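Lecture 7 notes: from sequence to structure.
We start with the chain below.
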Amino acid sequence: MNSVRRRNEIIMDVRRTGSVSVDELMLAYGVSVETIRRDLRILDEKGIVRRTYGGAVKREQTTWDMPYYDRMQLNLERKEAIAREAVLLLEDGDSVFVDGNTTGLVLSRLIPADKNLTIVTNSAMVALNLVQKKGKLSVYLVGGEVGEDGMTFGYKLHCELRQYRFDKALFSCMGFGTQGIYYSKWEPLQIAQMMVEQSNHLILMADSSKANRSGFLFGMELNRIQTLVTDEGTPHDMRESLRETVRNLIVTSSDDQSER
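Predicted structure tokens for the same chain:
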């Protein structure tokens, strides 16, 4: 196992259990104490975990979110499974909004070129993935100031988005629970809330690293969302509660037998 994948798994362990120890990680991954300590030091320096004597614990700040390119590598296989399920929800003739978060970027790679879709996005990278397919897709990039993650933001973005109406909107969040979805920053929160009014069908794509995780900003109640696509890492008891709130819950599985 390479170091990137090992660190991603350590992040998932910390988020799931709240803490990890150096000894446990050495046994789990069959590497030296120096290797594990280096992993924890790197994750601490990035603000993902907080090192302790003999291990690390979860950071609880509600205003902090992992940097975009680190999030891109986290839980990538599950994001791909979620994106594959989300693609199946798109129908010929749909007008679609795709946000620029990491799962949206994965989704853009999997949308078939021969699908007759009109897609609007706030991500230059999503737009580039789509236009390179040279198929039937019509792609619109909404304007604004561009951040280091390739996403547009600001007043111009909001003015342009208000001109559109969508059949479906696909977006993500910082965290979700049975009460609703959460964000650490205003920009994605405002976009998600705009989509409530401007889209007929909201599709939340949220992998299990976001389950039972809250943030500084409350986005919306789950009953505003028509479809939630997550993965089997989301706790089973939470899934049962979600089924009572979300109209359509899709849980992707590693054996390709998704729950619906």
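Points to note: The chain has a mean pLDDT of 87. The CA atoms of residues 178 and 238 lie 7 Å apart.
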